[in-house]
Write a structure and sequence with these properties.
Elements lengths: L2 E3 L6 E3 L2 E3 L13 H13 L4 E3 L8 H10 L7 E6 L15 H15 L4 E6 L8 H14 L2 E7 L3 H14 L4 E5 L13 H8 L2 E2 L31 H17 L3 H10 L5 E2 L2 E2 L4 H8 L8 H11 L7 H4 L2 H6 L10
Parallel strand pairs: 3-4, 3-11, 4-5, 5-6, 6-7, 7-8, 8-9, 9-10
Antiparallel strand pairs: 1-2
Length: 337
Amino acid sequence: MKYRLFGRSGLRVSELCFGTMGFGTEWNWGTDRAASQALFDQFAEAGGNFYDTANIYTEGTSEKYLGEFIASDRDHFVVATKYSLRDRFNDVNFAGNHRKNLMRSVEGSLRRLGTQYIDLLWLHAWDATTPVEEVMRGFEDLVASGKVHYIGISDTPAWVVSQANMLAQLRGWASFVGLQIEYSLLQRTPERDLLPMAQAWGLTITPWGALGGGALSGKYLRGETGRLPDGSVRRGERAMAIAQVVGQVAEAAGLTPAQVAYRWTMQRPGLSVIPIVGATKPHQLADSLQTVAVELAPEHLAQLDAASQIELGFPHDFLASEGVLQAFGNSRQMIAP
């Protein structure tokens, strides 16, 4: 596996990230400690050094297992965890983006991980109540203390991310170097604002849900059962039609559907994308790891793009319309790319 710089930073991470939300069985799925260790080792032996978890995953077991697995060579591994979501039900300050929860959550993650620092700390989801200034000042204090090395943001509107990074830049604080979002052939709405924003700020994108909850692997076309109900966004008519095209491309290219779905995210023009791969079985992870050794042909990318195309909406469609382009007096066409 090759390594890439993470956003506008010098942090070196593998070109795939292993998501450890399934480490632990508290949520009635996932893997026990022995199976989790085997998956961790399998990813590491393939050259992977980038692991993603969160305070809330399997009620803290994911962080605990991951901390035990990295202990023998802590500085080799890049560990990303998150704060924002609850550690305790019905307690107003045990969730949210605010400073009190940030500091409390980080201390809890450090204890569970058994480490003195977190390589990458994500804000997990925007709470729409905490001032951006408070969030960024808290992150700056953690980075200055050495408890956190880099910061990223997940599941947050593009305008909030831009506001936060501009504030941090102006004040000389740590700024976000990564963006974690749902992005796949089934979920392309981030192309309206989140992806252009990430490109402008040089953020590396770590998509979750790149397989659409398994839909793009073809499991539902094969009649397999899953946790997604029939008729849901990921199992509706559109999702099934896209999954069929993924299967056709996979057959034509000699790949598996999962490899096609992951690779499509990695070949988005102008973007730095490191998909989060998840697995509960060794053969699933082995299949995903082969993604780094393949590349989709232009005709296959075009076929996938056409099958999953969305309307960008206003102002994007308006600005790309012929009337607006003519209003610029042909000046755009006169500028060399």
